[in-house]
User: Which sequence fits this backbone?
């Protein structure tokens, strides 16, 4: 296996591992939102501005989970494609070797067709891989967008929390955890994107 | 890859083996090719490691599109793990292999090649005007196992039966039977599981007129050495590991 193939296997495998961490964090946000909603309810008028924010956080977490679920399916497709590409490359190399070893044989030329065919099959895999990587990068971008939105909401939450009197601390903690979670998601997804960006369609 | 023509008549038999480029840690194998005017049959085409040298060697005798038939005596990797590669190289070919092993051999990929299952009682392969008989050799050593007999060339391709392990560059024919015995005793005692299966096979094969017994490993037996081998094998106790 060449280093390039190894790198591709690792890049694809890393998507799944980074995203499973994103999934955990998104679920934490969803929990924080439920928690905030309960506090805001108890705080009543004092946390009036906070209530719509909790719904928004919850919605955002749900969407992130959905997106990541989809991306994971995509990552599996990419993994299969990587395996297929590896196999097609092995075949092409063996065919080329056979053609080279057959030099001087009466029927050496007849190997050209299988070689050409194997080359096309390999290139087709590479093309499909690059295309799918581009699409996956688009989906990762959407998750990043959500993470950025969550951070803005967290900032707003802090402002709202400051007017919540004795509930200030617990609401601030909610804002804090949403901010932290969004940060983690952002970082993980960014790592995925960097790992994959060298394969994108140019 | 060394090529030795072992029959030349209305068709040809060629033995391929003693591949110098073979990695040391894989077992040496003999491949056989039956060549008619427009078709070509590969018997036990070999492992994936052997695909390129084997294909290159065959191209001295036939173009790719005339490789129309493959035969696998049984399921072992040294016999047929190259199947997935032949499957991508050949566009119009058949694989004749034990019916018993079909679901297993398909793990190597057999999509464009047609799998022609050989029933337990055997059958034949027709290659233009040549008809080759598929002789049951079950439990020698594989539970679904066949040998190929050519009544015209009087050659029996005998799979792992008659095999021996020797160093590189070994001659292709047995030249001193008495000395050769030691090189194949343990092979047969350890690999062949059943004395009963052995007896039935010897009875069947004694009825065939054989000039050359052509195993998948080691050297071929010619003339009187064929009978010597059958007598020796008859007297040998096999299945010693239990
Ligand atoms: Fe075997
Ligand atoms: Fe074998």
Assistant:
């Amino acid at each position: 296996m060449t280093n390039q193939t190894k790198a591709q296997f690792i890049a694809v495998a890393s998507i799944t591992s980074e995203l499973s961490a994103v999934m955990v964090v998104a679920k934490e946000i969803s929990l924080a939102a439920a928690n905030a909603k309960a506090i805001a309810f108890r705080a009543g008028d004092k946390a009036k501005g906070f209530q719509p924010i909790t719904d928004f956080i919850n919605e955002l977490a749900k969407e992130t989970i959905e997106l990541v679920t989809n991306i994971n399916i995509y990552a599996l497709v990419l993994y299969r494609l990587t395996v297929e590409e590896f196999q097609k490359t092995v075949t092409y190399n063996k065919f080329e070797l056979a053609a080279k070893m057959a030099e001087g044989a009466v029927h050496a030329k007849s190997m050209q067709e299988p070689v050409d065919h194997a080359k096309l099959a390999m290139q087709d895999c590479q093309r499909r891989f690059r295309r799918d990587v581009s699409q996956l990068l688009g989906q990762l971008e959407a998750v990043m967008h959500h993470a950025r939105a969550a951070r803005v909401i967290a900032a707003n939450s802090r402002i709202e929390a400051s007017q919540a009197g004795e509930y200030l601390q617990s609401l601030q903690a909610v804002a804090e955890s949403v901010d932290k979670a969004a940060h983690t998601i952002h970082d993980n997804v960014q790592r995925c994107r960097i790992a994959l960006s060298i394969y994108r369609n140019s | 890859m060394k090529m030795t023509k072992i029959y030349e008549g209305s068709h040809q038999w060629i033995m391929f083996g003693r591949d110098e480029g073979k990695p040391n840690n894989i077992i040496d194998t003999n491949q056989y090719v039956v060549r008619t005017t427009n078709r070509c049959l590969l018997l036990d085409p070999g492992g994936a490691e052997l695909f390129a040298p084997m294909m290159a060697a065959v191209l001295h005798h036939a173009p790719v599109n005339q490789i129309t038939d493959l035969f696998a005596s049984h399921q072992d990797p040294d016999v047929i793990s190259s199947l997935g590669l032949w499957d991508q190289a050949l566009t119009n070919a058949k694989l004749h292999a034990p019916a018993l092993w079909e679901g297993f051999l398909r793990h190597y990929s057999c999509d464009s090649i047609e799998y022609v299952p050989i029933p337990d009682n055997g059958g034949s392969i027709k290659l233009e005007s040549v008809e080759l008989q598929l002789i049951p050799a079950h439990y020698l050593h594989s539970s679904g196992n066949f040998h190929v007999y050519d009544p015209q060339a009087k050659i029996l391709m005998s799979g792992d039966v008659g095999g021996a392990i020797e160093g590189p560059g070994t001659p292709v024919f047995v030249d001193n039977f008495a000395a050769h015995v030691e090189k194949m005793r343990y092979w047969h005692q350890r690999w062949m599981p059943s004395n009963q299966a052995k007896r039935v096979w010897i009875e069947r094969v004694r009825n065939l007129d054989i000039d050359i017994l052509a195993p998948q490993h080691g050297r071929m037996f010619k003339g009187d050495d064929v009978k010597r081998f059958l007598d020796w094998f008859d007297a040998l106790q096999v299945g010693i590991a239990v």
About this structure: The longest strand of chain B covers residues 2-8. The mean pLDDT of chain B is 97. Residues B 74, 76, 141-142, 160 surround fe (ii) ion (ligand 1) (CB under 6 Å).
